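yo, Aldehyde dehydrogenase iron-sulfur subunit is done. seq:
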Amino acid sequence: MPTHDLSLHQDSRPTSTGTPVDDSPPSFQVRLVVNGRPRTLKLDTRTTLLDALREHLQLWGTKKGCDHGQCGACTALVDGRRINTCLSLAVMHEGSEVTTIEGLGTPAQMHPMQAAFVRHDGFQCGYCTPGQICSAVGALRELREGVPSHATPDLQAQPLRSPEEMRERMSGNLCRCGAYSNIQAAIADAAEASR
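structure:
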């Protein structure tokens, strides 16, 4: 009857020669600029950008909602573009600039979109608010750059800031409390202020 060496590390398994083999998942060093600050993280290659932000950098403003890219609570800006961080691996963003809600502004010096959300009461429970705000900032940038949406009537024309445009652009961000009318008012206010 074979004997088992119980002194081997849990994450190691013996080879045919009895030498332990490291079974730990592969890790990768990822360099990011997060909220203007260079950061280097050693991560399991399967770590999502969301988990890197929350679990490794303690930036809890970016929320884990559905973890399937359906609710938008995890929205952050990567190189100025809004993405669902739960669907993107951190290693895919080597050298990228990541902006979370914490990097947009502070309570003492809010980003114009944050201030508009406060003025228009664009939140209730607040869970979706960081993703809503980051998404709105990204949507206004898309408009400035002339990126059309599904609701754009003429793809050759400069998209307008119509309510239909903004509802379409924000459709990936869900609010269980139903504060949509106030969110739309806040975005319209911030868009007008940025003209």
